[in-house]
Amino acid sequence: MKMEIKEDVEGGKQKIITEPLLGENNNQLVHGTKDHDHPHNHPWMVYFTTFIAVCGSYEFGACAGYSSPTQDAIRKDLSLSLAEYSLFGSILTFGAMIGAITSGPIADFVGRKGAMRVSSAFCVAGWLVIYFSKGPVPLDIGRLATGYGMGVFSFVVPVFVAEIAPKELRGALTTLNQFMIVTAVSVSFIIGTVLSWRALAIIGLIPTAVLLLGLFLIPESPRWLAKKGRAKDFVAALQTLRGKGADISHEAAEIQDYITSLELLAKPKMLDLFQRRYLRSLTIGIGLMVCQQFGGINGVCFYTSSIFDLAGFPSATGTIIYAILQIIITGLGAALIDKAGRKPLLLVSGSGLVAGCIFTAVAFYLKVHNVGLGAVPALAVTGILVYIGSFSIGMGAIPWVVMSEIFPVNIKGQAGSIATLVNWFGAWLCSYTFNFLMSWSSYGTFILYAAINALAILFIVVAVPETKGKSLEQLQAAINA
After folding, report:
1. In this predicted model, what pLDDT tens digit does every residue of 252-294 receive, in sequence order?
2. Cα–Cα dist 108/451, whole Å
3. pTM of whole model > 0.85?
């Protein structure tokens, strides 16, 4: 196995694979362009591999959705105080922050599949410890372990899916990450009302079992294999994903080209990420995570029931409508992302978030000042549903999609870890401060969130590029030029 690389320093980079990387089985790699000319020939393996990977996203949602329906039962069975249960609920985000910090290095060292195995192991251990818990300490340890698994999954699943997907399907397939999360949260909320908290913990093992078995049947990320210099495995994985008869010469050459050019650069250290070369992609990745979390989503999400109660609307009805709407609109966003594009959906989403916050702020303003009280429940419910619908169409999934697309493979682990850590810190900060803000001013809270979402729109207009329909290599070369 050998490769010859031609490089024209002044006229850009041009590298040609001259020897077959898979021996006699790889004639189609070097000759012909039939699949390059027909990009819609996507075999079932891409979809199957994506399905296995997003079982990790479902596990993420199952971990996040566990604490809400089980609160009363766990407190009663284990005689926990409200403070003890609050620690149990919130320690998840601390586990996720640790997972976020370590996710990139793990995914770079043992591969994307290896990182998913590590994450699954933590989730399995965490659920079993929760199931057998007799007091608050093991309960917290189990919750911390599932949180760690969540943090790793939140980085590695969208990155893996983006790396295996053809460019014209990448947006839709990566958005399935968010779709599975919100589906799992909603399912946990519904079945948690009829199952015991121990039974719900055992059900949390199912997606990890499917994932762990499925990982034996799917290929590793071709881009990770190429980065590791495993040329034969790289081509084999890409061929498996694109189909046995597909011509992968153009895509394989482009990936190999880009990775070879990256290898000529010094291996970046953490501080090197803030060099001018990488600063734009880092700004976009972190900026979108700030926009996603600081616009209030975790406050609204965690305290939906209390918002409905405060507005005088039946909380059970409101929460069920909220959960169903979230699943439907996230699915719609997945269908639209590769047609409409990332940026238009983000702008529509941001505008809807501002509108939803304003509706809710007006409702609470009327309530506080005893004006038009009959309109308060309808206005508040409209505001929250517009808010969650708008979040689901764009801001929920697309920051993860863009983050998985824009970082070059040589910095993806480190930069992705930073962006994921910022996301989890924002999630914790937003959920922690929400009740304090609401006690300060219910309508002022939503005016603040509206202002942050308006700034997010400005950031998207100025800083975020459109990434649909381009290969990861084209995108990353343009952004990090």
Report:
1. 999 888 888 877 766 667 777 777 788 899 999 999 999 999 9
2. 38
3. no
